[in-house]
């Protein structure tokens, strides 16, 4: 009899503990820029080679991670090991992400990522075109979101309408999908920026290098932190970051 009572107690204990443990689990958002070989232009640390990137995605696949985009934000508590991969600036070389995702996708592993594009830069040299974005959005591997219209420092701009509203509308027209997340250029934001962002978006993404611990505080979804994956990040370091 005592044995059953003990089992019952264990069952009750776990029953109460599990949801709490889930709720406290931090959310991990990674930020990348170029996925390409570094050829000497721009900052090297903003590149990750396709070879390293593939190893990182392989690691996520082999270790049971679920890759999410912001339209599936509510799923973060339902899936195994949620992680958000984001790519800023809309570089043409993000096509490499598509190729690697396609290569590693399986019925058990559906890679997805968020491309934060600068709407006025679409189709410029080295940037994705609207045809590219349409195709990438349709592929099911990507959510295309906004990184403003001109990559302005939002704490200094006066033209929030163009940077936030026009950018959202233009990207939405290209992909035919909702634009709900904004990544702040240079990671710069203040109260005014958040107030303006709230008019058009459900999420504001910073580059504060932390994990996101949900506290239920006001506007916390407009201060989402992200961790940089750099050129110099080794696979061992990557494993430490995500685990
Ligand atoms: Zn940027």
Task: Name its key features.
243 residues, alpha/beta, TIM Barrel, six-stranded parallel sheet, two-stranded parallel sheet, 37% helix, 15% strand, binds zinc ion
Show the helix and strand layout.
Elements: H1 2-24, E1 28-32, E2 34-35, E3 47-48, H2 50-62, E4 66-68, E5 82-88, H3 95-104, E6 113-117, H4 130-138, E7 142-146, H5 160-175, E8 181-183, H6 191-200, E9 203-205, E10 227-228, H7 235-242
Parallel strand pairs: 1-5, 1-10, 2-3, 4-5, 5-6, 6-7, 8-9
Helix pairs in contact: 2-3, 2-7, 5-6
InterPro entries: Glyco_hydro/deAcase_b/a-brl (IPR011330), NODB_dom (IPR002509), Polysacch_Deacetylase (IPR051398)
Keywords: Signal
Main location: secreted
Task: Describe this structure as you would to a colleague.
There is one protein chain. This protein is an alpha/beta fold and 243 residues long. It has one domain: Glycoside hydrolase/deacetylase (TIM Barrel, Alpha-Beta Barrel), CATH 3.20.20.370. It contains seven helices and ten strands. Strand 8, helix 6 and strand 9 form a beta-alpha-beta unit. It is globular, with a radius of gyration of 20 Å. About 2% of the residues have low confidence. The structure holds zinc ion. Zinc ion binds next to loops. Zinc ion (ZN) binds next to loops. InterPro entries: Glyco_hydro/deAcase_b/a-brl, NODB_dom, Polysacch_Deacetylase. Keywords: Signal. It is found in: Secreted. This is Polysaccharide deacetylase family protein.
